[in-house]
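Bug #77: duplicate submission created two jobs. Keeping one. Sequence:
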Amino acid sequence: MAKKRRRRRKKNHRVYALVTLVLAIAIIVIGFGLLFYVQKIEVSGNDYTENEVITESMQKDTLSFNSVYLLVKYRFLKHDTPKSLDSMKVSLKSPWTVKVTVKEKTIIGYLDEGSEYAYFDKDGKIVHKSTELRDGVPGIEGIDAGSTKLYQKMKVKSHKLLQAILNVAVEVKNYNLTPDRIVYEDDGINLYFGAICVQLGTDITTEKMAQISPIIAKLEGKSGVLHLEYYENDSNVITFSEEEADGSSEDDTTSEDDATLEDDTTSEDSPDDSYGTSDFQGTYYGE
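Kept job's structure:
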């Protein structure tokens, strides 16, 4: 009898210990779940991607209510991100507040589709559509992209032409230029800064793009054509054909005056429209 009682006590102790352990684990799990239950997701770094798009993409999993799970998932596990983003960085501001810092794909231009604007990145992929026109983003004209779809690449018949347009738009962004339009025309690709047209021709180089900013600053208030289509790094010749009040213009690229100016000789009575090499690479000759 005594042995049976001892066995019962041991069995009861084991059951009690097991129940206690299970309850403890349950309390820890429930406490962990309640403490790290996501109550708020703070998003920063986004400009055109809406907060809801980002937060909804994070809460698709069954465990996404837990902040620790989200932290582990976006740091160590494979995950999807909205297609308008380059990256997402997740951290915990508090056990119940998740902080998300995102980096969007850079917009370099847009297409005017009538009812809305289609904004694209350096790869020609449409990353945003809106009825609002964004400041500082150049419009693209002269190419037929057909009907564009969000998160898909523009469909232009000539891949070479599309790539040339994208290259120019990227360089415009890199040099902090703010043209109103980037236009493909018969004579090549042109940039329009208000009433000034910058002709780049068909051979787009970084040397050409580097000349634009300092010259445009000197041409404020004027209208006409800045000729960069024939510029080469070793030619040092850039001309500007200014339009007269009646709309007429005079082309000086082949005049004898240009030959004189090219030799750095100017009349004392003529205005000095030349720049030193400290301003830009090359020599600018105004009309």
